[in-house]
Amino acid sequence: MAEEKAKSIDSASLKMIDKAAADGANTAFDRAETMKPCPIGMVGSCCKNCSMGPCRVPLPKGKEETPEEAKKRRGVCGATAETIAARNFIRMVAGGAAAHSDHGRGVAELFLAVARGEAPGYEVRDEQKLLQVALDWGVEIGDRSNQEIATEIGEIALKEFGKQEGEVLFLKRAPLKRQELWRKQGVAPRGIDREIVEIMHRTHMGVDQDYKNLLKQGVRASIADGWGGSMIATELQDILFGTPAPVLGQVNLGVLKKDEVNIIIHGHEPLLSEMIVAVAQEPDMIKLAKSKGANGINLAGICCTANEILMRHGVPLAGNMLQQELALVTGAVDAMVVDVQCIMQSLPDIAQCYHTKIITTSPKAKIPGAVHIEFDEHNAVESARAVVKAAIENFPKRGSNIDIPEERTDLVAGFSHETINYLLGGLFRASYRPLNDNIINGRIRGVAGVVGCNNPRVTHDAVHVAMIKELIKNDVLVVQTGCSAMAAAKAGLLTPEAARYAGEGLASVCEAVGIPPVLHVGSCVDNSRILMAVTAMVKDGGLGDDISDLPVAGAAPEWMSEKAISIGQYFVASGVFTVFGVNWPTLGSKEVTDYLFKDMEDIYGGMWAFEPDPSKAAQLLIAHSDTKRQALGIDKARERVLYDMEMRRELDAV
Ligand code: NFS
Fold first, then answer.
1. Ligand 1: does its nearest atom lie under 6 Å from the Cβ of 452?
2. Residue range 23-38: average pLDDT?
3. pLDDT at 643
4. What is the mean pLDDT of residues 467-482?
5. Ligand 1 neighbourhood includes 582 CB (under 6 angstroms)
6. Mean per-residue pLDDT for 16-37?
């Protein structure tokens, strides 16, 4: 018998997986064992877009197929295997782009309500960013009040989704060469919703049947996500809740407290959770908690909502996606409040083994067995109070079957694009110059964005951590979002002390600036911050004139969601080499896979790769960086000692 793979590298998670088994709670780790992935669907060879099927067009077993044979693999409507794989792939892009962008729309709606004075409790916290977006969007500043400017920005933001003509406005933030390329290729997105709808139209039975044309629309919709919906979400959230700055925090199930009311905030949108953070500190709420026998109220997060409130308030992270069920298994969670995305339907079932209340809050995401307390943004404080009260009232119902693992690790987060700019360049000359110089002098070999989900098909956190360790050892600075950042945090990589895992060059830069070798930049919509960071690197000069010239690469080693595919696609379309692990959803068609893995490079200067082995994947990223360094003529510059000393002085002055 083959050796069973470990379920996690995180000891707290392993303990809770065992406890779940003892308690009779069925988790994703169990379900992944009993439910094997469908081998035909996994590689994109199943079409269920009409009722003449579902049609399966699997690859022939055990032999190479000729292009002529491949053409014969067809569904009932005549669609070829390549059309089917391309359709499936871009429907994933549509799903992911829709999720991020509908999140962005929700933020824009709240933003406008705040600007109009219709959402008490919220305010504009980052005036500088408000003015920056006004400048970017051509909104008049003059003598106008913040409220007037914000109202116009809110109205424009909402129109970005349904715009029928023109281009998504934030495209103008990209390097000029990139913008021109997108226009030339016909992939500059119009309205965000429009591109997603067009995917659904084109992939309907009997419409677009040219796989290259299908994939092109996937590119257009993904750009509408990264440079549209996600960027709108990030920017407007920053204006409302504050742009993140470095903050200390902790991660893992050990952040739960035995003697306090534990409320876990889980999902993606920070609109309600921001209010919960405020309300949980109200003296009346703490008094109520004490009247029920608790010593206080303890908030912790799961998934990307967790990243949002960590970045802005230092609220601890209970864990990443695969720890949502395990948090309940501690028996110490009094309420888990969820909004949208990455929320498992099994939560109410597991909660039944304990006392936890699962509270849904979005009209878009209800779960049978959960309590629904709808979030009303016009009355947000009251909504938040109702949620916190429900948790407090549940505290006395805790059973005796409680086991909170001790594991919790310190971390530093809050590296927004603006913070990186400031940390590296200083307040008066905020810039990416020192980063670019350190790349040019070779102390930093390249930059890698390591992002994305957990997936129980691989050992939880193992692929993230192995890849990141190998990257930093090779002097590659790692920037992170999402569940991947939490995996690294649990492994202790998000602290300045982690510089000891880094190669000499990267370690020296980290020590001089006082940053970790792995920078947590936020949630998954905050991948837009990475787009801004790489654009700033281009604009600062010395590393080419487009994103595709930079020694920069991306990875999602444990991906599972459609959002990850959309993110990967917009990184590739922005000129970034991007490697995914686990499995690859177009392997059922060589043509489609070749297009994504090779041809896209010629068109966009970025391409996909699939490599489930973390070490081999890290080596692909490093080799890519080296190729770009060579093209830039900086591959031999690493030994320039004189330049190093100059740099040291500049860094010391920070
Ligand atoms: Ni992003 Fe994956 Fe979900 Fe966040 Fe985590 S699973 S693509 S990382 S929480 S969205």
1. yes
2. 96
3. 37
4. 96
5. no
6. 96
Q: What is the CATH number of domain 253-397?
A: 3.40.50.2030
Q: How many residues does the chain have?
A: 654
556 alpha carbon to ligand 1 midpoint, in Å? 10
Mean per-residue pLDDT over the chain, rounded = 94
Our answer on whether the CB atom of 28 is closer than 6 Å to any ligand 1 atom is no
Name, in order, each residue with C-beta under 8 angstroms of 400's C-beta and a sequence gap of 6 or more: none
Give helix 211-224 / helix 562-573 axis angle, nearest 10°. Answer: 90
Q: What percent of the chain has pLDDT over 70?
A: 96
- The 10s digit of each residue's pLDDT in 568-606 is 999 999 999 999 999 999 999 999 999 999 999 999 999
Q: Is residue 654 pLDDT above 50, yes or no?
A: no
The residue whose C-alpha atom lies closest to atom 9 belonging to ligand 1 is 303
Residue type, 369: G
Ligand 1 binding pocket mutation candidate from 563, 567, 569, 571 (most atoms within 8 A of CB) = 563
Domain residue extents for the chain: 2-69, 81-241, 253-397, 414-632
Q: Is there a contact between 470 and 478 (Cβ–Cβ < 8 Å)? A: no
- Number of Cβ within a 10 Å radius of residue 39: 13
Phi, psi for 492 (deg, rounded to 5):
80, 20
- β-strand partners of 460: 8
Q: Report cis status (omega within 30 of 0) of the bond before 67.
A: no
DSSP label at residue 582: S
Q: In the structure, what pLDDT confidence band is assigned to residue 432 with cuts at 50, 70 and 90?
A: confident
pLDDT, residue 641, reads 38
How many angstroms separate the Cα of 556 from the Cα of each of 480, 561, 570, 582? 10, 10, 13, 9
User: At residue 648, does pLDDT exceed 60?
Assistant: no
Atom of ligand 1 nearest to the CA of 482: 8
d(CA 484, CA 576): 18
In the predicted model, is pLDDT for residue 204 greater than 50?
A: yes
Report the pLDDT value the prediction gives residue 428, as an integer from 0 to 100: 62
Question: Taking the complete model, does pTM exceed 0.85, yes or no?
Answer: yes
Is 445 within 8 Å of 505 (Cβ atoms)?
yes
Q: How far apart are CA 277 and CA 257, in angstroms?
A: 17
| Smallest CA separation from ligand 1 atom 2, residue | 453
Tell me if the domain spanning 414-632 has CATH number 3.30.420.180. no
321 lines ligand 1 (CB under 6 A): yes
Structure confidence by residue, pLDDT tens digits, 380-389: 999 999 999 9
Residue 563 alpha carbon, nearest atom of ligand 1: 7
Which one of 251, 273, 561, 566 would you pick to mutate in the ligand 1 pocket, going by the greatest count of ligand atoms within 8 A of its CB?
Answer: 561
Q: How far is the CA of 303 from the centre of ligand 1 (A)?
A: 6
Closest CA to 636 of 621, 626, 646, 651: 626
Question: Which residue has a Cα nearest atom 8 of ligand 1?
Answer: 482
Residue 483 CA to ligand 1 centre (angstroms): 6
Rounded CA-CA distance 531/227 in Å is 8
Choosing from 321, 450, 451 the residue with most ligand 1 atoms within 8 A of its CB, the one to mutate for a pocket test is 321
Judge if 253-397 and 414-632 fold alike in CATH terms: yes
For residue 265, report the phi and psi dihedrals to the nearest 5 degrees. Answer: -105, 125
Which of 171, 244, 620, 595 has the alpha carbon at shortest distance from 420?
A: 244
pLDDT grade for 61, boundaries at 50, 70 and 90: confident
Asked if residue 483 has its Cβ within 6 Å of ligand 1, the reply is yes
pLDDT band at residue 646 under the 50/70/90 scheme: low
pLDDT at 650: 56
What topology does CATH give the domain 81-241? Answer: Substrate Binding Domain Of Dnak; Chain:A; Domain 2 (1.20.1270)
Rounded distance, CA 526 to CA 343, Å?
Answer: 19
Question: Which ligand 1 atom sits closest to the C-alpha of 559?
Answer: 2
